[in-house]
Amino acid sequence: MNHPVKIKNALVSVYYKDNLAPLIQILHKYGVTFYSTGGTEAFIRELDIPVEKVEDLTGYPSILGGRVKTLHPNVFGGILSRRPLAEDKQQLETYEIPEIDLVIVDLYPFEETVASGAAEQDIIEKIDIGGISLIRAAAKNFNDVVIISSKNDYTELEEILANQEGQTSLEQRKSFAKRAFNTSSHYDTAIFNYFNQEEPLEVYKQSEQQAQVLRYGENPHQKGVFFGDLNAMFDKLNGKELSYNNLVDVDAAVAIIDEFTEPTFAILKHTNACGVASRNTVKEAWIAALACDPVSAFGGVLITNREVDRETAEEINNLFFEVLIAPSYSDEAIQVLTAKKNRIILKRKEVKLPSQQVKTLLNGLIMQDKDNTVEGPQEMTSVTNTVPTEAQYQDLYFANKIVKHTKSNTIVFAKDNTLIASGVGQTSRVDALKQAIEKAVSFGFEIKGSSMASDAFFPFPDCVEIAGDAGVAAVLQPGGSIKDQLSIDMANEKGVAMVTTGVRHFKH
Q1: Could you say which residues of the chain have pLDDT below 70?
Q2: Of 195, 221, 254, which residue sits at a domain end?
Q3: What angle do CA 109, 350, 294 make, to 5 degrees?
Q4: Do 337 and 483 have their domain in common?
Q5: Does 138 fall in a domain?
Q6: Among candidate residues 348, 366, 385, the one where a domain is terminated
Q7: Do 281 and 132 lie in a common domain?
Q8: What's residue 399's pLDDT?
Q9: Is residue 364 in a domain?
Q10: For labelling alongside 283, which of 7, 131, 291, 401 has CA 20 to 30 A away?
Q11: 124: domain range?
């Protein structure tokens, strides 16, 4: 064993005492002397195991309402002393400081207290000082000291002690130290982010403790990991684990469905909607959404904002799909949908989503606020001789909800709360328009009388001309081009209604 250390003295002071007893008992078996405080001291005594008060070690009582208990040279000297160094050993003897070989400490529940909506003073009192200092000191001196900073590590230390007769190796102590610094850095990040809400410093700090290793990344030769708590967002009712690409599409699906309050179904492929429809019932919405592009729907991600019933499930069951997301399912629907074991069926929970987006870029990252605005009829300004009808205003609104979630450059056709076709991710807006027209025709949709939305302004009148010739009745665009008037004039020439919103919805 590499540099074995037998534990002689242990400092134990924890907030959570779950599963602590077996570890204390095996340490006692190997003759370890315990030093403790408050509730942990009482806990150890209840196990009928001797324990020394930290107050007796320091010569000072717990003061300032418990704010100061362990912050003392007799504690930190015992933790930080370098065992091979004669000078350190001599000083410990001079001041009668015992070597502390094991520190078991956790931290006050800061994040939990913030999440509970507690008052600021209660939150401040959950900023741990002694605990975080003990963790850092013990982790720093991993050469001679074991640090346990989480109840999740109790069992592992028990097994080590049982297998190694109360000793630990250098590799094991260093591993525990790594976890301890993770504990301390996560804790400090949470505290900083709490304080950084008002007049925030322009820095980025984030710590996510939960990780899920994915089968692979975007492609099989890429490693993929999801950092976050998927269980808080979804109940997985059936199917294999979500892949990297599944997660990207699920994120896009959640974003687009949240634009709608009426019963709506959306079908996505590679983050772009290939089918969206709103109807009176979820079944009708599904049938209409699938009709938008049944070819692209194959292997897609499906999402709705209503409970999936048996009849709807039977319709969906005819399609090969990767993921289905809904807020709830009837028992009969679950029986239908889970007949194929690989289908991923997710029940969505109500979770507050982040308000910002972060992406790695070059040798750093970029951050932005989410695009949480979408312009309805009240934010649309008619700029042509022909004014949209009430139905066309609603179609423009519907198309605008979709265009903001579609890769630029994009054009979206909509009619009667249905996505007719879209052109996505093109290098030219004209190409996006032509692609949308071609798709609409290929699936038998009538473009005449439809409404069209563009994610950005028209720099030239060509898109309006092409759309007008195809039969588009109303157009939505943000406006803002120095040549806006050319597009407006073309709309008037073609008898097309046009509105501007003043808001661009690029999505790269």
Answers
A1: 1
A2: 195
A3: 140
A4: no
A5: yes
A6: 348
A7: no
A8: 97
A9: no
A10: 401
A11: 5-195
User: What backbone torsions phi and psi does residue 141 show, to the nearest 5 degrees?
Assistant: -100, 40
Taking the C-alpha atoms of residue 370 and residue 372, their distance in angstroms, rounded to an integer, is 6
| Per-residue pLDDT tens digits for 433-450 | 999 999 999 999 999 999
Is 140 catalytic? The answer is yes
**pLDDT (0 to 100) of residue 375:** 95
Do residue 109 and residue 236 come from a single domain? no
Q: Which residues contact 478 (CB under 8 A, 6 or more apart)?
A: 454, 455, 456, 457, 500, 501, 502, 503, 504, 505
Backbone φ, ψ for residue 333 (5° rounding):
-65, -40
For the stretch 320-329, pLDDT in tens is 999 999 999 9
Alpha-carbon span 276 to 432, nearest angstrom: 18
Same domain membership, residue 314 and residue 386: no
The Cα-based distances of 93 to 6, 74, 97 in angstroms read 19, 11, 6
Q: How far is CA 138 from the centre of its chain?
A: 32
Pairwise CA distance, residues 107 & 103, whole Å = 13
Q: pTM here?
A: 0.87
Query: Quick check: is 201 in a domain?
Result: no
For this structure, is 6 an active site residue? no
Same domain, 190 and 71: yes
CB burial of 220-249 (b: ≥16 within 10 Å; e: otherwise) equals eeeebebeeebeebbeebbbeebbbbbbbb
356 φψ region: left (φ > 0), alpha (ψ -120 to 50), beta (else): beta
Please report whether residue 508 resides in a domain: no
**Residues 179 and 150: beta-carbon distance below 8 Å:** yes
Residues 130 and 137: their CA atoms lie apart, in Å, by 10
Cβ atoms of residues 32 and 10 within 8 Å: yes
Residues 121 and 252 in one domain: no
N-to-C CA span, the chain: 54
Classified as helix, coil or strand, 360 is strand
CATH number of the domain that residue 145 is part of: 3.40.50.1380
| φ, ψ for residue 73, nearest 5 deg | -60, -30
Q: What is the CATH number of the domain that holds 396?
A: 3.40.140.20
Q: What string of DSSP letters covers 461-487?
A: THHHHHHHHHT--EEEE----TTHHHH
Exposed e or buried b per residue across 356-387, where buried means at least 16 C-beta atoms within 10 angstroms of its C-beta: eeeeeeeeeeeeeeeeeebbeeeebeebbebe
Catalytic residue among 3, 126, 186, 270: 270
Query: Which residue out of 140, 151, 186, 236 is catalytically annotated?
Result: 140
Contact between residue 474 and residue 388 where contact means Cβ atoms under 8 Å apart:
yes
Nearest CA among 3, 51, 46 for reference residue 27: 51
**Are 313 and 343 contained in the same domain?**
yes
Whole-number Å distance between alpha carbons of 220 and 439:
31
Give the per-residue pLDDT at 1.
61
Same domain, 19 and 155: yes
